[in-house]
Amino acid sequence: PFTSLRTINLSGNSIVRITSGSLPKSLHVLDLSRNKITAIEGLRELSRLRVLDLSYNKISRIGHGLANCTLIKELYLAGNKISD
Fold this sequence. Notes:
The chain is mainly beta. It is built from no helices and 4 strands. The chain has strands spanning about 5-10, 30, 50-55, 75. Strands 1-2-3-4 form a 4-stranded parallel sheet, with no helix packed on it. The radius of gyration is 12 Å and the shape is globular. Keywords: Leucine-rich repeat, Repeat.
């Protein structure tokens, strides 16, 4: 299901985490802004992702959660407290 879906807007849904395999691999644009996400995880298989909005969450570090997302052109992280 949803294998041709390109854009998903899940902003403002109080999402705490993204589980691996829960989103279609076909996504190009993913808006997860204004949620309660604490870590960038569950996104590795989204290798076609071009735009990712994680602004205004509770993310403190970037880590390797986007290692396979090599096509990303726009990454929004404003409003998080990211530190080394």
